[in-house]
Amino acid sequence: MSEDTIRLVTIGRILRRRWRLLAVVAVVGALVGYGASVLFPPRYTTSASVLLSGQWEERELLTQGQIAASSAVVDRAAAALAWTGVSGAELRDRVSATAADGNIIKISGTADTPQRAQQLSDQVAKEFVTFAARIAGDSTDPEAEAGPEALRQKVVQTNRRITDLAEAADPGRTVESVQARTELEKLRTALLEAMNKLDEADPASTKAGMVVMGPAARPTGEAAPTRLQLIVAGALLFFLLAVIGHLAAARMSRRLRTEAEIAAALGSALLGTVDVPGERRVQRPTGRGPRAWVRRLLGLDTRWDLPAPQSSGGETGRQLRYRRVCTRLRTQLPAARGLLVVVPDGDEIAHRAAGQLVAEAGSDPSPGSSGRGCPALRRVGVSVSRPLVPDRDTESGAVVVLSAGSWTAEELAGIAEACADAGHEVVGTVVAGPVLARPARPAGRSRDRAVPALAVGDGAKGGSG
Length: 465
What we know:
Elements: H1 8-17, H2 19-39, E1 44-52, H3 58-68, H4 71-81, H5 88-92, E2 95-100, E3 104-111, H6 114-136, H7 142-168, H8 175-201, H9 203-206, E4 210-212, H10 227-251, H11 259-266, E5 270-278, H12 290-298, E6 310-311, H13 315-332, E7 338-344, H14 348-362, E8 376-382, E9 398-403, H15 409-421, E10 426-436, H16 443-464
Parallel strand pairs: 5-10, 6-10, 7-8, 7-9, 9-10
Antiparallel strand pairs: 1-3, 1-4, 2-3
């Protein structure tokens, strides 16, 4: 598993090198979202408001909201609407009620057409008002209304009788008449207080007044999620999954990226790192056939997790790195007659580096000269899946040349075992990396810049002479 921190530059590299694949994945996600919108038909939602008169506590409003969305109310609304193929149980999933500020119950209905959504909300609101009035006692049942009304009539008659008795009594001439008038007034006051308490205790007089605040508005747009929202959500979801998949693959990658890890996997010493000049665009493998064409079209034929090539230090610096590798080989193996340069197949950068290394070793002084020359090098390509190295002949060892971030420890161990089976000891490892070659300056421009210096020199010389 790679321990590299996921940074914005990594995501930017994914977007830059995999934009074609991400675009195709986003289009597929949009098509999936469109398919989901076809499977789930559009829905329309509207609301009707019911005003509750009087003073209500919060928990009482919540109770009224639950009553508005209960089966007792919705089933009555379903029976009144009589929609074909729609039962009360199905409508209960489409109706909701919430308690809003100001003693208002907001009843929402959802249907497949705007007209049906409006009818459903209005009918449920109407049935809720009727049902709540019946619970509170405000109904048309004559037996329920006869008791309180008869009691009020009796109280009125009693008040009239008390008035008649008070007028018939001797108006204050005797003590008995004064006491009688006082007792009659006390009786009148007690009756009035009892009627007031009865009116206050009657729920129909305080909380049965519910009013539907007009018909529900006909919806003009679909309820969420709309078809456009599903399409956008599908494209965005697939796009994010593709990016996360790339990051997870890079996180779980076992390819070796550092020189120390590569040398340890091959069981040899690191001879050095060399630079291979190349273009800014990553080298694409050549392949034919529909599969290769699709991979090239989507950008899957190039590695996205490799860092961008750094600027080169110039041809002199690159040659110096190859010379140092030859020097280390000459120092470690002074008597070696020849070495194999083993390069994994498919590693274009390593192949170019191996060719340059072989050319540099050939230009070294020969053993017969005054200095000890670099051992003769012969480049050999091996398959990583089934590595096979030529048997030992004139060579006395092998040098493995490869690029960083391309191979796992198991693959490199297989190459080392193949070298050992052929009788070659891996004497060193060379890691190659791509760099951006500096553009060569035109010869005319450099010549023009050199002319003034020569002129100054000639003039100075002629002046001194």
